[in-house]
Amino acid sequence: MARKRDGERSGLPRGLREQLRIPPGGSPVDLSSYDPAATPGGPPDKVKAREEALATGKRLASLQERLYAAATAGDRRRLLLVLQGTDTSGKGGTVKHVIGMLNPAGCRITAFKAPTDEERRHHFLWRIERALPRPGEIGIFDRSHYEDVLIARVRELVPAGEWSARYAEINRFEQALTDDGVAFVKVFLHISHAEQRRRLLRRLDDPSKHWKFDPGDVEERELWDHYRDAYEAMLERCSTVAAPWYVVPADRKWYRNWAVSRLLLEQLEEMDPRYPPARFDPEVYRARLATG
Amino acid sequence: MARKRDGERSGLPRGLREQLRIPPGGSPVDLSSYDPAATPGGPPDKVKAREEALATGKRLASLQERLYAAATAGDRRRLLLVLQGTDTSGKGGTVKHVIGMLNPAGCRITAFKAPTDEERRHHFLWRIERALPRPGEIGIFDRSHYEDVLIARVRELVPAGEWSARYAEINRFEQALTDDGVAFVKVFLHISHAEQRRRLLRRLDDPSKHWKFDPGDVEERELWDHYRDAYEAMLERCSTVAAPWYVVPADRKWYRNWAVSRLLLEQLEEMDPRYPPARFDPEVYRARLATG
């Protein structure tokens, strides 16, 4: 119902999730057929997008509060936003601008770096488990367990037999979490090779951005085609009914922010969390407060 | 210097920190001499406060980014906002409205509840250590280790000899953290007995706020005078040069938000974090990017 209302309001024929979803089932994915500069379902321009963001932010914050409130009465549901994409694709910018619209007290944000020695001694999902949102929270992963089928595959950090078994492991893991109340919004931020160059050059040109520039990013860029293959495999094999992948064209930052906030909104509207009923008699406490 | 500039701009004779700080040294504190509805140093009204918040939010976010950037080059500094105050004093509202102006990726927020069984088996500072901000982060404690000299004292959860030794323990702990780069902003949100009644009644009247109403809050309210004594002892004994306490009048939410954001701003301006210099030669990478 919520989705239909949105569709009417913005003139969309159907939800954004349907438009951006990689259909589950394992059909081959060819990223070259997705235009990174496209704006499917989006507003016509940046100005309009910024206007919409205000209303979207309010609705998101209100749904977030309900989700949080419901958990105080035992509702185990939570949302997990997974952000993947190459360096400069805008994972950090999405957290800043989209998650910045929410109440930070209800967010649990983790940026996954190269695993520490301790993390390496454990199963690759160990550090993921520890970072999961608790009931009522919105979890945000800036990179995730998918690194273990991305850089681990491209850089051959583990034998092929090991990373290739991980796709099915991840699907089982996510299915179990879904059964326990986790709603996934998995977003692949899709930028072009040319746009990445522009962004890296901008970091080099601006001294206040030098700290963000990692020389290693240029090395990774030289493996662009290998990463594309790894992303395609991830999208093909791990877009499931329980936890589908969405491909968000990300060359335009305003569209990226608009799309991710809409995906979260549609997901939360479908979850439709409710304020729990009082577990006390308000009259009793009104009377007690009247006297002191 | 930053503080002088602020003073000039807003017409304040001196920084807000000086105005709201409990002078270190252990002189008796009488909370009845602090008006919870006052607005010391603040803008004349809500509208003006909201206007200022936009500019303050931008400056805060910019300083936060520098702090974060500096940590990538080894700067160990971080900021820790400690929020204490009775139920309904606005700790959660402060996180939502003030911390909501920051980049959530650089914030580490912990709401301390009654200790779990595991936490109870450890020293009272164990769970605090685990929640500290890492270098470059802004930590936010909604309640804190001070609960161990507040509810623990009022409810006699531990023998008097034990809680009374904690004031000095806390001071040593905070001194050690300060030496390691933690800048404290400890805020006591000061509301009146009458304002608490209004806020509790509002929660009872609004079904969408019932989840926030804890019947236990009414029991705690009946111990108001005991809590006042415990707050006064905390302010007297733990306002140190290294980590002073600020008393923020909190009956007016707009003033509370304004004041806490200003305290953070003054602290960050004094810290004056800097973007680190590049540890690479930009020309080398510009050339590599030109070819692919």
TrEMBL record, chains A, B:
<protein>
    <submittedName>
        <fullName>Polyphosphate kinase 2 family protein</fullName>
    </submittedName>
</protein>
<keyword id="KW-0418">Kinase</keyword>
<feature type="compositionally biased region" description="Basic and acidic residues">
    <location>
        <begin position="1"/>
        <end position="20"/>
    </location>
</feature>
<feature type="domain" description="Polyphosphate kinase-2-related">
    <location>
        <begin position="49"/>
        <end position="273"/>
    </location>
</feature>
<dbReference type="GO" id="GO:0016301">
    <property type="term" value="F:kinase activity"/>
</dbReference>
<dbReference type="InterPro" id="IPR022300">
    <property type="entry name" value="PPK2-rel_1"/>
</dbReference>
<keyword id="KW-0808">Transferase</keyword>
<dbReference type="Pfam" id="PF03976">
    <property type="entry name" value="PPK2"/>
</dbReference>
<dbReference type="InterPro" id="IPR027417">
    <property type="entry name" value="P-loop_NTPase"/>
</dbReference>
<feature type="region of interest" description="Disordered">
    <location>
        <begin position="1"/>
        <end position="47"/>
    </location>
</feature>
<dbReference type="InterPro" id="IPR022488">
    <property type="entry name" value="PPK2-related"/>
</dbReference>
